[in-house]
Amino acid sequence: MERMLEECKEEEPLPKEEIRDQDFDARRNHFLYQEKEAQKQADRLTERLRSYDENLTALAEYSDFPLGEEVEWEQDLFCLNRMKMRRNILVQGLLPETCMTL
Questions:
Q1: DSSP states of 53-90 as a string?
Q2: Cα(47)–Cα(53) distance, integer angstroms
Q3: pLDDT digits (tens, 9 = 90+) for 15-61
Q4: What is the pLDDT of residues 64-77, one digit of tens each?
Q5: How far apart are CA 62 and CA 68, in angstroms?
Q6: Half-sphere exposure of residue 96: CA atoms within 13 angstroms, side-chain side
Q7: b/e map of 15-31 (b: 16 or more CB within 10 Å)?
Q8: Distance, CA of 3 to chain centre
Q9: H/E element, 96
Q10: What does the pLDDT average to over 70-97?
């Protein structure tokens, strides 16, 4: 009892019905799984950043080119990209009308 008082700051143990029963192996496995998934996501994000850095490096050689006239597109590229990726949504009419025309 004296040791319990020193270590736990309690004079008496909890009644058995108040002690929660836990499967520590299952909890440990769950946390290990979460850690692996977080590492996979971190690896994917690191790869994406590396890819962006490569693109910026490749485009850096064009930074000295003089700017020409502004280009006007017949179709809004944002809407065009959206139409290609989400044809099902377009059919349902969830995007603005300006994005509906091909």
A1: HHHHHHHHTTTTSPP-PPP--SS-HHHHHHHHH-HHHH
A2: 10
A3: 888 788 888 899 999 999 999 999 999 999 999 999 999 999 999 98
A4: 888 788 877 676 66
A5: 13
A6: 6
A7: eeeeeeeeeeeeeeeee
A8: 47
A9: none
A10: 61
